[in-house]
Amino acid sequence: MTYSIAQAAERTGLSVDTLRYYERIGLVEPPARDSGGRRVYSDADLTWLDFLTKLRLTGMPIRMMREYAQLRHRGEATAGRRKQLLVEHRADVRARIAELQACLEILDYKIDNYDLILRRQPGGAPEEATA
């Protein structure tokens, strides 16, 4: 199946401008063109864009994404370096998750503390509202 740039943007959650930017900086190969010269994206293109989106959501720098994309373009001979990039990034993601988990625990503690305070006040929050 093929998709116009607008359809690709809708399916990936990226803007048309972002798709063009990713093409310009080499994150995606220039897509095929239809007879009118308009970009035509394939399912494989959308799968790659979805992966790039995941990398961005996990905080991978564009510089590292570009290196990964360039290596991918060069084929299986670069599998070792691509794996290394992902392993290093995974360690960063796990560290950020641990930091966020610690922050979440502090928020939970503070919220629970306010529930206790409110229950001690006259007319405080009913028990079922704090559950």
From TrEMBL:
For this protein, what is any one GO molecular function term?
Answer: DNA binding
Instruction: Write the record's keywords in alphabetical order, separated by commas.
Output: DNA-binding
- Superkingdom: Bacteria
> Which InterPro entries does the UniProt record give?
DNA-bd_dom_put_sf, MerR-type_HTH_dom, MerR_fam
HTH merR-type domain segment(s): 2-71
Tell me what this protein is called. Transcriptional regulator, MerR family
